[in-house]
Amino acid sequence: MKSIFISLTFILLASFTNITNNTTVHQFKVKGIDGKTIDFATFKGKKVLIVNTASACGYTPQYEGLQKLYEKQKGKLVIVGFPCNQFGGQESESENTIKEFCKKNYGVTFPLSVKIDVRGDNIAPIYKWLCSKTENGVLDATIKWNFNKFLIDENGKLVAYFPSSVTPESDELLKLLK
């Protein structure tokens, strides 16, 4: 009987620890490229695709696919781009120039944040959460280049991580949006 009690206590403690340590993306607010706050709590009930972006990268044409996906999934999916200049200096422009570039060349209407760091000593808190299993409760990820993608479910939980080579049109990603 004592071992059953100890086992049940352990299970309850493990469950409680998991509940208290597993936060959601909904806790984050970031500064938008337009000066407004992007409050992830407003995305409750929708899937969210978070992407670190750059304007002068071989993967930059993915902006077009991201915009098409955003339009097709409107109301069910929010895409948030995070410009970053940590990979080959491929996002060295001002935030206003980035915003204009994205609108003019790819018709981007999904939210973009101000430039951030997605790794290293100055990593943005949202990316610290995305990349650390101890923070997100799901997986560890290492951002190696631009256009890495994180899919969040309707409850704010991390579902999957995709490297740069997985495009917005990839079956690997699209099957998780159904």
Spatial arrangement of strands, main beta sheet = 4-3-5-6
Find the structural class using helix and strand composition: alpha+beta
> Can you count the helices?
6
Taken together, the total number of domains comes to 1
Please give the CATH architecture.
3-Layer(aba) Sandwich
* Approximate strand percentage: 15-25%
Can you summarize the main beta sheet? 4 strands, mixed
- C-alpha termini separation: 47 Å
Shape: globular
Helix content: 25-40%
Classify the fold: give the CATH topology.
Answer: Glutaredoxin
Describe this structure in words.
The protein is α+β, with helices and mostly antiparallel strands and 178 residues long. The protein is built from 6 helices and 6 strands. The chain has one domain: Glutaredoxin (3-Layer(aba) Sandwich). Helix content is 33%, strand content 16%. The strands form 2 sheets. The chain has a 4-stranded mixed β-sheet with strand order 4-3-5-6, covered by helices on one side. The protein has a two-stranded antiparallel ribbon with strand order 1-2. Strand 3, helix 2 and strand 4 form a beta-alpha-beta unit. The chain is globular. 32% of the residues are buried. The N terminus is likely disordered.
Give the SSE layout.
Elements: H1 2-21, E1 29-31, E2 37-39, E3 47-53, H2 62-72, E4 77-83, H3 95-106, H4 125-131, H5 133-136, E5 149-152, E6 158-162, H6 171-174
